[in-house]
Specification:
Length: 309
Amino acid sequence: MEKTLQRPLPASPKARAKRLAALVESALIDEVTLSPKPGLVDVRGNGAHHDLDWTLMVHSAQTLRPAFEAMALAGAQIETQAGAQLALRERIGRLGREGEAAMLDATGGINTHRGAIWALGLLVTAASQAPHALGAAAVASRAAHLANIPDRFAPVSTGHKGERACNDYGVGGAKGQASAGFPHVTKVALPALRQARAAGIREDHARVDALLAVMAALDDTCVLARGGADALRVVQTGAATVRAEGGLATAQGRRAFRTLEQHMLALHVSPGGAADLLAAALFLDRLPASAQAASDIESAHQETEHGAS
């Protein structure tokens, strides 16, 4: 992880929100750039998608940065008392819907990051709420608290594919992940990422291993919506097999990866839910190890478009 990403968060709410939004944007761009990923957009190509590519996904991430900054600012400014939490939940809900509208306008109506807006919107708000408690479990717990507060202004039904998959297959989906404190991020993706690093595996392979760990365990509504329960079994079993064979660090693992990718492309399925959770893990992973406040002047001089000098 770049040292510049580990700078302490600024004390000023506005500077803190700007920094956190930059970290979200960099996590989203790193996720889509990570290659190879089975069925997903990466620098090699479009995966199982016909309407997405790397350039569009990066443009979407950049378009969403102001929405994440606004959500982080709300988290920093609105009090943490119980009465204020409803106001915060409804504020970030509105900001998320506005962010989704901006995304769709920027992409010509294509859903690039709807799930990421939900997950990372909650997490960036939670991180900004308590900049001295930035451990992954603590941030995820605060995000879960927000997720479990009903938003009176949210649509009762969206009609989105993920919502329909939840209803059809009885799975929790993105809302279930958030309400439970993002267990596939804190208990699956991050441990896999850190264990791979500790084993000396290079960073891109470690990130792919974290993705595969989530794919092997997650009832991914993106897969269910496209291919049903049979496709989900192929994805989960295949991802587990790649990891059991040593992942991309071994010849056997790379062969198993190619087999999994061929099956997923034949089924036209893409693990978009797992990709969103990987981006969430990358965001939490790069939060500062130290919560000591940095000066606003330092932040203003050092911040760049993607959160690194």
